[in-house]
Amino acid sequence: MRSFVLREGRLTSAQERAFAEIWPRFGVAGEGDAPLVFAEVFGNDRPVVLEIGFGNGESLAEMAAGDPAHNWLGIEVHRPGVGHLLLEIERRGLDNLRLIRHDAVEVLTRRVADASLERVQLFFPDPWPKRRHHKRRILGPEMVRLLARVIRPGGIFHAATDWEPYAEQMLEVLEDAPDLFENTAGRHQFASRPESRPLTKFEQRGERLGHQVHDLLFRRR
C-alpha cells in the first residue's frame, strides 16, 4: 500500500534542464538491494540527515545550507519538486545535499544500512484524513521499526504535522515502542519547533487558517 499518490505535474524548461544537467551529479539511485555507502555518495564521512517527502525542497535546501557539518539526503517521488530542489542546489552552490526520486519505504528497507543515519525528518506528510484511507499514512508500527533500524542509537526522528488527529496518532504509535524511541519532550507531550526546522510557506498558510503545527522529536534508544 503506497503512502502517496503520484500526481505528475509538467516540468518547466528550467526543471527539464536540471534533470539533464544537475541530476547526474546530485541524484542517487533509489532502486537496488545493496545499501548505499554514504562516504562514497557524499565524498566524506559526515553524519547523514535524511528527509522523507521534501515537497519543493526549499526548506531542505535552507537546512543544508545552514548546516554544512552534516550531509543531507532528500527523498521525493514528484518530479517537479525534485527539479525545483535541483535548481536550488545549483543556485545556492550546495555540495552536501543529494536527492533520491523513489518510494521512501523501499529506500529505507533496501538502500539504507543499519544505524547509518543521524536523523530522519518527516514534515507535513499526507494526513489521509478519511478513515478508510488511514492505512495509507506513512507513519505506523512497521515504519517505526524500520526507522529504529536505520537511525543510530542516540539519533533523532523528527516529525511535524498540522493535522491534529494525525499528530495524536503519530504520538501514540511512537510511544507504543518505548524500547525503540524516547519522547524528548516527555511522555504524551509534543515538542516545540526547533530553530533548525525552517518555518515554511505551507506552515505559515496553515497558521493563518488556524491550524496548529505539532512537532514530535523522538530519540533512538
Give structural notes.
- By secondary structure, the protein is of the alpha/beta class.
- It is 35% helix and 20% strand.
- It contains nine helices and eight strands.
- An eight-stranded mixed sheet has the order 1-4-3-2-5-6-8-7, with helices on both faces.
- Helix 4 (58-66) runs parallel beside helix 5.
- It is globular and about 45 Å long.
- The two termini are 29 Å apart.
- 34% of the residues are buried.
- The mean pLDDT is 93.
Provide key terms for this protein.
9 helices; 221 residues; alpha/beta
Beta-strand level of the residues, as a percent range? 15-25%
What is the 3D shape?
Answer: globular
Total number of helices: 9
Overall helicity:
25-40%
Strands across the major sheet, in which order?
A: 1-4-3-2-5-6-8-7
| Mean pLDDT figure | 93
| Class by alpha and beta content | alpha/beta
Q: TL;DR of this structure?
A:
With 221 residues, this protein is of the alpha/beta class. The protein has helices at 13-21, 23-26, 38-42, 58-66, 79-92, 104-110, 141-150, 164-175, 201-208; strands spanning 27-28, 48-52, 71-75, 97-100, 117-123, 151-161, 181-183, 214-220.
